Amino acid sequence: MKFELSYFRAAGVGLGLLIMATIVQRPIAAAVQHVSEKTPVGSALRSAEWAQMPLSLRQQAQFSAGVESARVLNRVQSGVLEILSHSRNEFGVLTDRSKLIADITRLAEAEGLAPADPSLKGTVQDITSERRAELIYEQQTGQAYGRANWKADMDEDILNAAPAWELVRVESRKIPRDWIQRWRAAGGRFFQGNRMIALKTDAVWERLSRFGTPWPPFDFGSGMGVEDVLRPECIELGLISLGTRVAPKEFEPQLEASVRNLSPELKNVLKEHFGEQVELDGELVKWKGGVELHEQAAANRRESAGRIFAGSASALGPVQPANDATEEVRSVVRRQAVVNSVEISAVAAGRKPLFHEDLRYLNAAQVEDYRSALQKQLPQGIIARFQGGHLYVYNPDLVGRLADPKQPLWPQVLANRDNGRWLGYGANWHETSNFSTVLIEDFNGEVIAGFGAPPDTAALYGAARAQDWSQATGGKYTYSVLRRGGAA
Amino acid sequence: MIVIKLESGAARNQLKALTDRIEHPRQVLAAAAIAGRRELQRHFTQKDSVGNKLGGRRTHFWGDVRQSTQLGAITDREATIDIGDSRFAQRLHGGMIRAKTPWKGSGFLLLTIPVHPQAHGRRASVLARKLGIKLTFVGSARGGVIGHFAAQAAADQVYYACVPSVDQAADPTALPDMEKFEETVAEAAQEELTAQAQAAQEQTGSQ
Fold first, then answer.
1. How far is A83 from chain B (nearest CA, A)?
2. How many Cβ atoms sit within 10 Å of the Cβ of residue A124?
3. How far is CA B171 from CA A106, B88, B90, in A?
């Protein structure tokens, strides 16, 4: 249905200037475009890890935290598009909020995506829950309309008619968050007491947003929005002077810069999380689709990781220490065999570039037998070598990104065997102090491994290495990122 | 600073002359449209602050309408404000809604109208899963109810009324008071005109 209300009014006194303001109900083209340009991307990453993804990849991905199901992701995108574009089904019925929520929850349940942990049932981490589906609806439509609004407001005439926004509460919340504090932390200025106002082109909006975008919503379910501050008030508040013309801001270059010249380590960890869905060749990193294939490949990798881990752990565990050893030492050897096998299975699954361990304390002949058997189990292309008492398993494609292509690969593997960048941790803590400590913890909260990772992407590496454990053993493993000084 | 009083005849003449020289008529329309958008958004925010009639949990319908309220095309002569939410027209005008999608299995053409607070904003399948209960339809192709019917009648609970069609009343407050809205829009346009006139006058004065 379309309706139109027209108001004709002469503005001013006898100016003869006819102003026509029309209110029309129709799809917002820029909002539809925002969603239709997205690529469905499946991954096990949670929100905190997605937050560390390059902005452009986040903006262009149709994702939902922890969801790998192609069917669910495709339905989210098609459903949101149907809502925004006012599409009707074969009976002429519009898709609406309640229909999309019903579809997502039903589909997710049919796909068997309910969390195994009963404490997560019904929470936002449960993709089969109404609460999570509502959040998806709110977030997807909010971002689409938010971006469309921002684009419209970056028209020079419109921007100068209302150069600023005020951050205001637009929906009530039972327990509202402290936005005054967040505004202050983002570097926002206060006017007339606690009014949070800034030019629309001010970077404070990006700093305020959990998503790094200059438009609302600024956080999940925040209930906060923006209201235009008209030009006369901006002048009165001293934000602009009488003759000032505010220049529109472009966001596209910022998006492009976020995926230009990424480090090879970061490219590797993107490959680990997204497989063939991400295109890494060339100057710009971008999505290339294939969520269905990725879902199947991820399932295969999990199966392969579990199989290789089991085979490796059972073969490596009984390998005897080189010298007479106490039972205590043998026990340590068996435990270390588990750690080694987890990491080896991660390399085998294409998730980690390099595994290296000094095994000179073990019987060399037995380790060589183990290596030989392992090589037969490993997928084509993955190499296992035992040299000088050290065991190496590596993925030539992944380490190749880090290596000098003009030099032979193997000597470079040897030279970088203790380099955290090559081992899949993102940072080499032997050569830099600029890293965050990441701890991998088992289901009892016991720390089982630790490494240094780049501070701004530590969650991506933490998730990757915790997944190594989860996929190999089938157990639940998490990670913590320690801030400087040791606080989590 | 030179203040131009729009009511005065002198100002009118001055402005008439200025109108022909306005370099930015689109800016005037932009000011009007953006003031109109703000007025509409404020109105929808106000409406969103009121709970639903059933007393169920909030779905923030009016919040959705608010965020879908955007600026459309703005030219030198006209401005458009778009409301992107497809459900808004029905609220504004009301009217007959007929069931169109046949139910799976029976082929019944019935609407499910929430009559219980917990059913507000929820499809029957979502409610059943949420409450962990089995919902049953009792009725015929001409209508009925959907509820949870337990062994004891005292525990029965009806959640939806099922009807072939419903005549929804228009919401007379769906849009803000039009007189006030017009005033706001015109006032913003007038302020922008004044600003342009002042700027032009300052420029003339400095020559």
1. 8
2. 17
3. 33, 10, 9
The total number of structural domains that make up chain B: 2
pLDDT confidence of residue B155: 75
The pLDDT of residue B115 is 96
Q: What's the token pair of residue A405?
A: 């292509």
Mean pLDDT of A169-188: 95
Taking CA atoms, A53 is separated from A397, A402, A439, A459, in Å, by 22, 20, 20, 10
- Per DSSP, B53 falls in state T
B11 and B86 in a single domain? The answer is yes
B202 is a domain residue: yes
Q: What is the pLDDT of residue A332?
A: 83
* Residues of B in Cβ contact (< 8 Å) with A242: 195, 198-199
- In terms of domains, do B90 and B188 share one? yes
Q: What per-residue confidence (pLDDT) applies to A320?
A: 79
Query: Are B106 and B89 in the same domain?
Result: no
**Candidates A22, A98, A102; nearest CB to B80:** A22
Cβ–Cβ below 8 Å for B30 and A91: no
Same domain, B79 and B135: no
Same domain, residue pair B76 and B155: no
Residue among B6, B16, B49 whose CB faces A172 most closely: B49
Confidence of residue B21 (pLDDT cuts 50, 70, 90): low
| Confidence class for position B144, pLDDT limits 50, 70, 90 | very high
In A297-356, the residues whose Cβ lies within 8 Å of chain B are none
Residues in chain B within 8 Å Cβ distance of A118: none
Residues of chain A with Cβ-Cβ distance to B48 below 8 Å are 170-171
Residue B152's CB: how many other CB atoms inside 10 A?
7
Task: Collapse the DSSP code of A309 into the 3-class scheme (helix H, G, I; strand E, B; otherwise coil) and give the result.
Answer: helix
User: Distance between CA atoms of A18 and A73, rounded to whole angstroms?
Assistant: 48
Q: Per residue in A248-306, pLDDT tens? A: 999 988 888 999 989 999 999 999 999 999 998 788 899 999 999 999 998 888 888 89
**ipTM score of complex:** 0.87
Distance from the A131 Cα atom to the nearest Cα atom in chain B, whole angstroms: 10
Asked if residue B171 belongs to a domain, the reply is: no
Whether residues B85 and B7 fall in one domain: yes
Question: Which of B65, B110, B126, B160 should be substituted to probe chain A, the one whose Cβ sees the most A Cβ atoms within 10 Å?
Answer: B126
Closest residue of A to B179, CA-based?
Answer: A7
pLDDT on residue A5:
31
If we measure between CA atoms, which residue out of A256, A301, A259 comes closest to residue A276?
A301
Q: Over 80: is that where the pLDDT of A19 sits?
A: no
Q: What is the mean pLDDT of chain A?
A: 90
Q: Which domain holds residue B38?
A: 2-95+176-206
Which positions ≥6 away from B16 have C-beta within 8 Å? Answer: A14, A15, A16
Name the nearest CA neighbour of A345 among A418, A299, A395: A395
Judging contacts by C-beta atoms under 8 Å, the chain A residues touching residue B108 are none
Write out pLDDT tens, residues B104-130: 989 999 999 999 999 999 999 999 999
The reply to whether B72 falls in a domain is yes
Chain centre distance of CA A355: 25
Residues 109-138 of chain B with CB under 8 A from chain A are: 121-123, 125-126, 129-130
Residue B79, pLDDT score: 84
The answer to whether residue B104 sits within a structural domain is yes
Residue B78 sits in the same domain as residue B125: no
Residues of B in contact with A165 (CB under 8 A): none
Q: Which of A2, A4, A13 to mutate to test the interface with B (most CBs of B within 10 A)?
A: A13
> What residues of B are in contact with residue A149 (Cβ under 8 Å)?
67, 70-71
**Residues in B 11-40 with any Cβ partner in A closer than 8 A:** 12, 15-16, 19, 24-38, 40
Supply A62's token pair.
Answer: 């149709």
As a whole number of angstroms, the distance between CA A92 and CA A121 comes to 35
